[in-house]
Design brief:
325 residues; 34% helix; globular; alpha+beta; six-stranded mixed β-sheet
């Protein structure tokens, strides 16, 4: 069995290496994709603590240098960084790994743009990025591969608790007004609200105080929420591992302190998806809550060809999961 974990560690994870390591170690993954890997020293320290090799898409020079990284217990056959600034706003890391059975698995780690204050919440930009990702992954068509990371978008049909997110953003905005550095990496009102609509910021601050306004806001936001970029991946045949394993569970992954939507994904090619055992989102680790480590929760997926029922039951029990196979 191979266990994959995808994790946005929030602006490099600097000063949060210990809780991040506990969150990751509790899941006991073989491969970890790290998003917002802006601190090479933190990536190296995480690798050391977890006993894993580490590789980065590039050497981040500052806190806004949005690199991604990979940690692996499996042998790394090769790595490649795709940099296409006109099509993808952040580097994409490709790595080929050798699994225990000798077969090769290619993984891609990505971080799509947020750009929530742009038209339709930045969906047009993300759709362009996904089309380029599909071109990059085209060479692996017909083989086992996956793409994971922070897609900053929701899947078609997914639930969205917009009022929960708004309440969180309003609280962050208060802190941002006092000290912008304290809220680095967290969304504040002007970050998500388009310029022409910022005159409504006072109203947005009032919505979390009313149950009726929250209900109306949830309805409107659910209709407005951009989902086109995830739709492109699904239409191309990639399988949303969490939704495949959990048809009716919301699976909110962000913000960790007030989960409101699912924007972190592991997508598997059809060849790999055939061996999907389960996918889940941990909310805590070894004596650490998810929000203490990052503003995102990790996503974990297990793959295993030829896993017998008794072996699967043992795997799930060891992880503290209910056995439903």
């Amino acid at each position: 069995m191979t266990r994959i974990l995808s994790y946005n560690i929030l602006v490099g994870g600097t000063k949060r290496v210990e809780p991040l390591a506990r969150m990751i170690e509790t899941a006991n993954p073989d491969v970890v994709g790290l998003v917002e890997a802006t601190d090479p020293h933190a990536v190296e320290e995480l690798g050391r603590k977890l006993g894993m090799q580490h590789v980065m898409s590039g050497c981040a020079d500052h806190a806004d240098d949005w690199q991604v990284a990979l940690l692996s217990r499996l042998p790394i056959v090769y790595t490649k960084t795709h940099i296409r600034p006109h099509d993808i706003t952040k580097p994409v890391l490709e790595a080929c790994l050798e699994e225990e059975n000798g077969e090769r698995l290619t993984v891609f780690v990505t971080h799509l743009t947020a750009s929530f204050s742009k038209g339709r919440g930045g969906d047009g930009i993300r759709q362009r990025e996904v089309r380029e990702l599909l071109q990059i992954m085209g060479e692996k068509r017909g083989t086992s591969h996956l793409i994971m990371g922070d897609f900053n978008a929701m899947a078609p049909g997914d639930t969205f608790s917009a009022s929960t997110l708004l309440r969180y953003i309003v609280e962050i905005d208060k802190r941002y007004q006092q000290n912008p550095e304290v809220t680095q990496g967290h969304p504040y009102l002007n970050f998500v609200v388009p310029g022409p609509l910022r005159i409504f910021n006072p109203l947005l601050r009032l919505i979390p105080q009313s149950k009726l306004l929250c209900a109306l806001f949830d309805l409107a936001a659910s209709i407005y929420a951009p989902r086109g970029s995830i739709g492109l991946l699904k239409n191309a045949g990639y399988v949303d591992c969490f939704r495949q394993s959990n048809p009716s569970v919301p699976g909110f992954s962000c913000p960790a302190a007030a989960p409101a939507g699912r924007i972190d994904f592991i997508f598997a090619s059809p060849e790999l998806a055939a061996s999907l055992i389960r996918c889940y989102i941990p909310t805590e680790g070894d004596n650490v809550r998810g929000e203490e480590a990052s503003d995102h929760l990790p996503v974990v997926a297990d793959f295993g060809i030829g896993v017998e029922r008794q072996d699967l039951e043992s795997i799930l029990r060891d992880a503290g999961e209910e056995v439903e196979v």
